Amino acid sequence: xxxxxxxxxxxxxxxxxxxxVYRVAFSYRTIVGLNRYDGNGWLVSRNEWGPTTGKHLxxxxxxxxxxxxxxxxxxxxxxxxxx
Length: 83
Hints:
The structure is a single chain. The protein is of the alpha+beta class and 83 residues long. It has one domain (4-82). Helix content is 28%, strand content 25%. The chain has helices at 51-61, 71-82, and strands at residues 4-6, 14-18, 23-27, 30-35, 43-44. It has a five-stranded antiparallel β-sheet. β3 and β4 form a beta hairpin. The two termini are 15 Å apart.
């Protein structure tokens, strides 16, 4: 399986890991977003951390805070997709 690691803002604290099936976004070491290449865009966590992570979340969903989900819900979906 081909996997790539990118830093879209050229900062090491924001990372996107891409596989052929999905992409997972990390702020620091915390998963904050999932994109399953299904045309629905990113599923993004609500900000439970701080302003830097907030910038990462905004990068993922263009600041659409109304569509964000609880972090626990995001993690349950990530666990389902990656198992």
